[in-house]
Design goal:
There is one protein chain. This protein has three domains: about 250 residues, no CATH class; about 110 residues, D-Maltodextrin-Binding Protein, domain 2, CATH 3.40.190; about 140 residues, Immunoglobulin-like. The protein is elongated and about 95 Å long. The protein has a five-stranded mixed beta sheet, sandwiched between helices. By secondary structure, it is of the alpha+beta class. It starts with a helix and ends with a strand. Helix 16 packs antiparallel against helix 17. The protein is about 50% helix and about 15% strand.
Length: about 600
Amino acid sequence: MTSSKSVWQRLWPVILIILIGTGLRFYRLDFQSLWNDEGNSVRLAERSLALIIAGAGGDIHPPGYYILLSFWRSLVGQSAFAMRAFSAFAGVLLIAVTAQIGKRQAGWLAGLFVAVNPLLIYYSQEMRMYALEALWAGLLLWVTARWWQTGRRQYLVLSCVFTVAGLYTHYSFPFVLAAINLIALIAWGSGSRQVLQLGKWIGAQFIALLCFLPWLPIALRQITTWPSSGAQAAFTDAFIGTGRWLSTGDFFYGHAAWLILSLITLGLGLSAWRKSWIYALAFGVPCALMLGLGLFQPLFAKFLVVAVPGFALTQAIGLSTLAQRRTQRWLIPIGILCTLALTPSALRNLYFDPATFRDDYQGMAAIISESTDPAPAVILNAPNQWEVFTYYYPDGPTVYPVAKQRPLDFDQEFAQLQSIAAQHKTIYALLWGETAADPERKLEDWLNRNTFKVSDNWHGNVRLVQYIVEDAASLLANYGQTPEHNFNQQVALQQSAFAATQYKAGDSVPIVLEWQAQADIQNRLKLFIHVYSDPNTPPVAQLDTEPLGGLRPTDTWQPNEILIDQYAVQLPTDLAPGTYTLAIGWYNPQDGQRLATSSGDRLELTALQVTH
């Protein structure tokens, strides 16, 4: 009974921490939409083993995660919750592994730091390979330490297995191997084991590399030919950012606060070097390689997930050293509070701040599904959107991934765009990553000139833009008006046109406006289009924009230049029948001052009759 009680006293803190970590990883697991890379994961997992391997050969990730995810999918199904649960369980296992690694010194405390770490929680809720890679790294650290402590063969075999698993999971895993092999070399050099021990270790690593050899040419090709991801961060910014990512991920909006709080316990751990050196190297070497190779930037910062367990263990050992000094034990709860001080704010941002959410393809698919047009066209401007969008919009034969490459070849896609506009009355464009996908924004410019923009809204990092198809030249020829109105001697309205003046609630009202610059315009003016029943009340529908959908701001106009601008104002679906006025005007967004016309600060163009 005494023995059982002793075991329970040791285990209950770890069990409680694992339960907390499990709750944090499964909480709101499917609240956010899948995003582009998760769409790739779910589509690859649908394929046969041969096709998964072939698909990974053209990807920037090896096939290991996708193969395991495919088996997982066959067991649990393809819902977002079920598929993401694979990463969530990997994250939970990492808590247990971390606690096991440091059990003799500070296991439960290290497990706590891993359980609540926002970076690990985020990637435990994503259908990607980063939580699994962190688990392989933790397991490899554990069996490496056990091998050098005991010399038991099973730990050496497991080290080989986890090395192969990590290499086939992500191309950044060699950072982990660099740390692990440095640890092994120092352990041998300290005289704790003989030359035979080192020889066995080298043999196991050699066997692991032989297992990865068939994939090595593909890995080298993909790593060396993959497009650049952007500018590198300055070293100081990268150093501070590394510490912030290890502590709170990208979810705490301060800059150097972690230096004061998290480094307190990290410093204690490093001061107890004889106990913490293995774990310090486990996080320090990957971080040093990231910094030394100039890889720290938002796209690559997630590679740091493999360093978090070592970081947490080093911090935990720092606090455990206080427990051995009776006069300093009162500092332990203060140290824990310092280490976790930023966590509540970071977790709140992770779960509830829309700024941290993934791109909302689910929401965009729902909006398009509710369109009054039974067969709208959906244009995708960049590769890797089709997979995730059609996960939420499976019955979409009118989905057009016009960009076959980055950047898109507009001349190649021109005929397809004309065909789409000829077949559909409504077009939705999902515009993502335009800097790489369409740096000159030729696709959007063509849509602005050949269709009528209805709405333009952000859903994460993706813009959902709705257009309706009308012939602007025909409208001007058949319905054009020449009111000859001037706005502050800067912009003149030469002509306007409307297809009709009678609409139903929920309709879009297409408008053609022909402008002429009267002078060299210094400011970026904004156009407003209002629909109202009473000029003294807020409009029932409105649109605020820059010319040509924002692509031709007024400070780029040349004097006397003619520009044809076309839009569509969406009437509310619950708009009451009656007579409404459509008016336009210009204002300076810096001070909100409207440009004057001869009739006031706006120009009434026409009356609209709205019916049921």
